[in-house]
Design a protein that fits this description.
This is tRNA(Ile)-lysidine synthase. The chain has 356 residues and is α/β, with parallel strands linked by helices. It is built from 14 helices and 13 strands. The protein is elongated.
Length: 356
């Protein structure tokens, strides 16, 4: 905890997100210790708490209220309960609950003037995240798992095992609430936790969770490097026409594959789309090979990407300038524009969803 807050620049007010489970309750107990001291390394700190009631289980309001009472007994102040409505997002119930929870945490941090939000994820959560990413065939960013710090979200316990948080609760004489959904086989993460990880530990030996978490730490460095390079490359290539964004075909085609796919994804996000899956990225990237259709290829978030060829571009210029279309007589003055537009372009356009 001390290292996490030091790395974050010693925020003066922190908010502990607590569900009442052993991980977040142990987190609250450790944060409360520093709150009672009033400082970390001589830097003043105050600790508040928030409990998010997702209303997904019978008796959730009672659990939230009881947890808030425990946080107040630990010395956290103020402590709030935030009730949320979990609306379907199309990405599954776990993602919908996470989105609603993070929105509530952000709102609470703003209202309570907190500079950091503490989350109780452990090394076991990190290992499960990496394993799920592998099973889904996700890319580097997903396999890199959760960050110990992202914006004002801090995860001080990413280096601790789940058993250690249970031990903290025992030492602090706290009785954590055990969420029944954590053992519900209807959820992929629960199946990974209850069924898959124990088998891996049994068959491959101890240390599997640590190895998966170490993989995440290594891939975070790789993902950060590629992300920064892709952002620089994208900004150097992108051009805009109204609400559309386009990329020069030749320049994108010459990029290494790792950058090419990321640049295409950035263009889709730039016009209001969502992160495309690998299959959709492959379909968009295939437009660069000039084989088959010139598009459009539909990407998540109502984004269409299509290729405009040299002849299309020349025809557009000819029509706008009142000159002969491509294939007609041209003089030497046309050499400059033709050379400048020797390649086509990939156009990314956000399509408004149907009102139907």
């Amino acid at each position: 905890m001390q290292n996490a807050l030091a790395s974050a620049g010693y925020p003066q007010r922190v908010l502990v997100a607590c569900s009442g489970g052993p991980d977040s309750l142990a987190l609250a107990a450790i944060a409360a210790y520093f709150g009672r001291r009033g400082h970390i390394d001589g830097h003043p700190v105050a600790v508040a708490g928030v409990v998010v009631d997702h209303q997904l289980q019978p008796g959730s309001a009672e659990v939230a209220s009881r947890t808030a009472g425990v946080l107040r007994e630990l010395g956290l102040s103020p402590v709030e309960v935030r009730t949320v409505e979990v609306a379907p997002t199309g990405f599954g119930p776990e993602a919908a609950a996470r989105d609603a929870r993070h929105a509530a945490l952000d709102s609470a941090a703003e209202d309570l003037a907190c500079d950091a939000i503490l989350l109780g994820h452990t090394l076991d959560d990190q290992a499960e995240q990496v394993l799920l990413g592998l099973a889904r065939g996700s890319g580097t960013r997903s396999l890199a798992g959760m960050r110990s710090a992202r914006g004002r979200l801090l995860r001080p316990f990413l280096g601790l095992r789940r058993e250690e948080t249970l031990e903290i609760c025992e030492v602090e004489e706290l009785s954590p609430w055990h969420d029944p959904s954590n053992a519900d086989p209807a959820f992929a993460r629960s199946r990974t936790r209850v069924e898959v990880m124990p088998v891996l530990e049994e068959k491959l030996g101890p240390g599997v969770a640590e190895s998966l978490a170490r993989t995440a730490a290594i891939l975070q460095q790789d993902a950060d490097f590629l992300e920064g390079l892709a952002q620089e490359t994208y900004l150097s290539l992108v051009r805009r026409e109204g609400d559309d964004a386009w990329l020069p075909e030749d320049a994108v085609r010459e990029l290494p594959a790792a950058l090419r796919f990321r640049v295409i994804a950035k263009a889709a996000a730039d016009v209001g789309g969502q992160q495309p899956g690998y299959g959709r990225l492959q379909a968009a990237e295939a437009l660069l090979r000039r084989q088959g259709s010139a598009g459009p290829v539909e990407l998540p978030g109502h984004v269409s990407v299509y290729r405009l060829s040299l002849s299309d571009l020349e025809q557009e210029r000819s029509v706008s300038a009142g000159a002969p279309a491509a294939g007609g007589p041209r003089d030497s003055a046309d050499a400059g524009p033709r050379e400048a537009a020797r390649c086509g372009k990939l156009v990314f356009r956000h399509q408004k969803p149907s009102q139907q």
